[in-house]
Every structure is written in C-alpha cells, then in structure tokens.
Design goal:
There is one protein chain. By secondary structure, the chain is of the alpha/beta class. The protein folds into two domains: 1-32, no CATH class; 36-205, Carbonic anhydrase (Beta-carbonic Anhydrase, Chain A, 3-Layer(aba) Sandwich). It has helices at 6-22, 26-30, 50-54, 76-88, 103-108, 117-130, 132-136, 141-160, 164-171, and strands at 38-43, 61-66, 93-99, 176-182, 189-195. A five-stranded mixed sheet has the order 2-1-3-4-5, with helices on one face. It starts with 5 loop residues before the first helix and ends in a 16-residue tail after the last strand.
Length: 211
C-alpha cells in the first residue's frame, strides 16, 4: 500500500521536472536572495494558496498564513514577518486576503467553546461586536458569515497600518496595503480596501515618527 504522503513527494518530482522542461535555468534563477514585491497575509485554509489563486510564480510572494488571516498586535510571529518583509525585503504591497465561507470567522460567530483557538477567535468577535447592528440585520446565514468575512478583512488591513514599520513605509509612499477577499465558489478575488497614505490611519494609532 502506497503511503498517502508519498503522493506529495512524487508530485514534487513531477513539478520540478516540468519546470526544468520549460526553463533549464528555473532553479538557478531562484537561488539568489529573494526579492518579492508582495507580502501576503492570508488564511491557513488549504483551499487558498496565494501563488495558485493569483497565478504567481515562486519568488514573487512572501507569505504568512494563520486562522482567519488575523493581524494581532501581540502576535510576534506575524509582526516579525511584517517587519522583515517591509524593512529588509522592501515589499511594495502588503495584501491581507480572506475568503468567503471562512471556518474561523463562522466559528467566531457562535458561543461554542472550541479550545485554545477560542483565544484567537476572540479577535474576530471584537469585529462582530463593533459591527453587530449591521451583521444582525442580515437574515441569510451564509450572507451574514460572508459579510463578517469582509468586515474582518477590512479590520485586519487597518491593523497592519497600526504598526510603526508600515506607517514609516506609508509616510515614504514605499508600500501600499490592500484588503482582498477570495471567492472559493468562483475563484475570483474582490478588492475591499486600499490604504496608500498614513493619513488614512486613525489619528489615535499614528506614531510620531520623528522620535
């Protein structure tokens, strides 16, 4: 019996051979230091791989993924990725991408206790509380979840801009922040918010960058 994980190893060999058949220098071109133009902050959902759904090639997108694509001010993992991408890699675009039908968002909208993830989902519950009147006015459950997905994307994109490293880049106009949502049902990405200037950040969250 073939072990299920060998499918991935065999697939890797086939993929590598395909790349070399198209371009014998493919892997040599990837060997130098990476210079991606984009940082992708997305959901861990296995149906939403950044390169696949955007048609990008290896080396184009620096990727960070977590449950429900959150930007939490205490998440040192994400903050380290963000700082490295903006300061060292000098990406020009930070893309916060969620997806319709997100299980994390849906789970945050009930009162079930799931375990450790409850602490993570609380961040989405805060978005719900902030927008409760709009969300609770939607009768259809699927539409309600999908609107929460959109509101969560917008909020997390704004959270990206609450960091000092991004504010410095916005002030220099060297980076833009985008909030997108991907439709698993049709494969299309919808733009929700674009932040190109530090003036778009709420004043209470802006830093005095001269200090």
């Amino acid at each position: 019996m073939i072990k299920s994980y060998t499918k991935l190893l065999n697939g890797n060999k086939e993929w590598a051979a395909q790349q070399l058949s198209k371009d014998s220098m493919f892997f040599e071109k990837l060997t130098p230091l990476q210079t991606p133009e984009y940082l992708w902050i997305g959901c861990s959902d296995s149906r939403v791989p950044a390169e696949t759904i955007t048609g990008a090639t290896p080396g184009e997108i620096f990727v960070h993924r977590n449950i429900a694509n959150l930007v939490v001010h205490t998440d040192l993992n994400l903050l380290s990725v963000l700082e490295y991408a903006v300061k060292i890699l000098k990406v020009k675009h930070v893309i916060l991408c969620g997806h319709y039908g997100c299980g994390g968002v849906k789970a945050s909208m009930d009162n079930m206790a799931y375990g450790y993830v409850d602490n993570w989902l609380r961040n989405i519950k805060e978005v719900y509380a902030k927008n409760a009147q709009e969300i609770e006015s939607i009768a259809d459950e699927e539409a309600k979840v999908n609107r929460m997905v959109e509101l969560n994307v917008i909020e997390q994109a704004k959270n990206v801009c609450k960091t000092k490293v991004v504010q410095k880049a916005l002030a220099k106009q060297s980076v833009q922040v985008h909030g997108w949502v991907y439709g698993i049902q049709d494969g299309i990405i919808k733009e929700l918010i674009n932040i190109t200037d530090r003036d778009q950040v709420h004043p209470i969250f802006t830093y005095n960058l001269e200090k």
